[in-house]
Design goal:
Elements (H helix, E strand, L loop, with lengths): L6 E5 L5 H10 L5 E6 L10 H16 L5 E4 L2 H6 L1 H5 L6 E2 L5 H7 L5 E5 L1 H4 L2 H10 L6 E5 L1 H8 L2 H4 L1 H18 L5 E4 L8 H7 L4 E3 L2 H6 L11 E6 L6 H10 L6 E3 L6
Parallel strand pairs: 1-2, 1-3, 2-9, 3-4, 5-6, 5-7, 7-8, 9-10
């Protein structure tokens, strides 16, 4: 691959492409290495040890391509193991964090929620994160949205929109039965922004915040290349590469893809 000091962006699947697209728009000359590790989906159901093993393997693999920076485009490792990850790499490492300060500033009721996968919303690190941003942590609901993440990675959000909307509506009904005063929710899995229109249809009175814009603003001026994006993808029987290609085609995303066979390192 003839990439010049690319920014490497990775997650356990399609979720992180939204960040890739924002980088392409903001830094058109930046080369990007997009790694969709579908064989490791979902990060959120892994133990801390398993997650660190996957992160170590992934960062060593991406470092072989001489990146100028690496973006961990997943909230779970960004919240729970980022301190350990920084010792694994010599280039700048960026993560994805819930836009909680923005949520609190935009709320009219003073009640907001962070939606993410189960392991993140149950982690002590997320509670510590919330405690740093507000003196009233009880005003911040931590909401398990793992079933919503599955709707993205399996492609339902593209190929079964009616069924996806029904599942989103049921999910939101339950959320607001438990937390009726929430008026802002953060989409704190990189998969969840793909469902933003479904969430807004299901609860138009609520704001849904995507953290991706904030990430892209932190990476600086980048490195000048040809503006090429190359995708690497792993696969599993449940999440094959052909299904990934079908999602990209449905989204009208035309980038070269190479399958990375296991074990990659």
């Amino acid at each position: 691959m003839s990439l010049v000091r690319p920014i490497a962006v990775f997650d356990a699947g399609i979720g992180s492409y939204a960040i890739v697209d924002l980088i392409r728009r903001r830094l058109p000359k930046q080369d990007i290495l997009y790694f969709a590790d579908r064989a490791s989906f979902p990060y959120g159901r892994k133990s801390r040890h398993e997650l660190l093993t996957v992160m170590d393997r992934t960062i060593r693999f991406l470092s072989q391509h001489e990146p100028s920076a690496i973006i961990v485009a997943s909230n779970v490792p960004s919240i729970t193991v980022m301190d350990e990850l920084k010792s694994m790499v010599e280039v700048p490492l960026f993560g994805v964090l819930p836009p909680l300060a923005d949520a609190l500033s935009q709320s009219q009721t003073g009640k907001v929620g962070i939606m993410g996968v189960q392991s993140m919303v149950e982690s002590p690190q997320l509670r510590q994160f919330v405690g740093k941003h507000t003196s009233d942590p009880d005003a911040v609901a931590l909401i398990n949205a793992s079933p919503m993440v599955d709707l993205v990675e399996n492609g339902d959000f593209l190929f079964d929109p009616a069924g996806t909307q029904r599942k989103v509506d049921v999910f939101l009904r339950d959320v607001f039965l438990d937390h009726p005063d929430i008026d802002v929710l953060t989409l704190s899995s990189t998969h969840l922004p793909w469902l933003r229109s479904y969430f807004e249809n299901g609860r138009p009175s609520c704001r849904f915040l995507d953290p991706a814009d904030a990430i892209v603003q932190t990476i600086g001026a980048g490195t000048s290349g040809s503006g090429m994006t190359t995708a690497l993808v792993t696969e599993s029987p449940e999440y094959p590469a052909d299904a990934f290609r079908a999602m990209l085609a449905k989204l009208q995303i035309d980038i070269p893809i190479r399958i990375v066979p296991p074990p990659f390192q």
